[in-house]
Design goal:
By secondary structure, the protein is α+β, with helices and mostly antiparallel strands. The chain has helices at 3-25, 32-43, 51-66, 68-87, 97-101, 119-128, 191-200, and strands at residues 94-96, 110-115, 132-143, 146-156, 162-168. The protein is globular.
């Protein structure tokens, strides 16, 4: 394949990734696959960029449109996350998602994973600490042929941020999961790591580039 052909293909992939990211940012598509297929059709090509390519373009769009306020909001959300995590410090809390990555955008929430076998204790502790619970639900997903159950709690913080706490069985603590968007391992941040980050570089991003 010639260099010109490679460059042309790369340009098309980039255009589709940007279009898909735009669709996701403005809510014209909800899922990455849907956004990529729709973008490819708009551009008139069969190329589909990777989720990573789209995610990086989405981060650029959010930076451009939201400006300095985006960084300020990220720091605020990380501080709110730390408050929650300290309450549940005995349950191996891990900050994941866009607040961990640093690639938040309008509508992003705080995602925290906890490991505990009694979900009622988590719910009661949230209520005792003044969190408004909007919804709870239990879900099951199959990984490597094994069903895994998790309990999801949706809350509003004192700082008017929305957060989703995912409670997994204690035996799963320490297990690693692969990110379907970025393709790397979801390492996240524990309490000490988040404290250090807020003291040293509170707006740092964790993107695999």
């Amino acid at each position: 394949m010639s260099g010109e052909k490679l460059n042309a293909d790369s340009d098309v992939r980039c255009k589709i990734a940007k279009e898909a990211a735009t669709l996701l940012y403005f809510g014209a598509a909800k899922e990455y696959k849907q956004a990529k297929v729709k973008a490819a059709k708009t551009i008139g090509s069969n190329f589909l960029p990777s989720n990573l390519e789209v995610a990086l373009e989405l981060d650029k769009i959010a930076d451009m449109l939201e400006g300095p306020a985006r960084k300020e909001r990220l720091i605020k959300m990380r501080k709110e996350a730390l408050k929650i995590m300290k309450i549940f410090k005995d349950y191996c809390p891990i900050l994941i998602g866009s607040v961990w990555r640093g690639n938040i955008r309008q509508g992003s929430d705080i995602d925290i994973t906890l490991y505990h076998d009694t979900t009622d204790e988590i719910v009661d502790a949230l209520k005792e600490n003044g969190f408004k619970i909007s919804k709870t639900e239990r879900t099951t997903e199959t990984k490597m042929g094994t069903p895994k159950s998790s309990f999801h709690i949706y809350v509003e913080t004192a700082g008017k941020q929305t957060a989703e706490l995912v409670v997994r069985n204690s035996e799963e603590a320490g297990s690693k999961r692969k990110c379907e968007i970025f393709g790397d391992e979801i390492s996240g941040l524990n309490v000490k790591e988040l404290e250090r980050l807020l003291n040293e570089n509170p707006a740092e991003k964790f993107l695999p580039v």
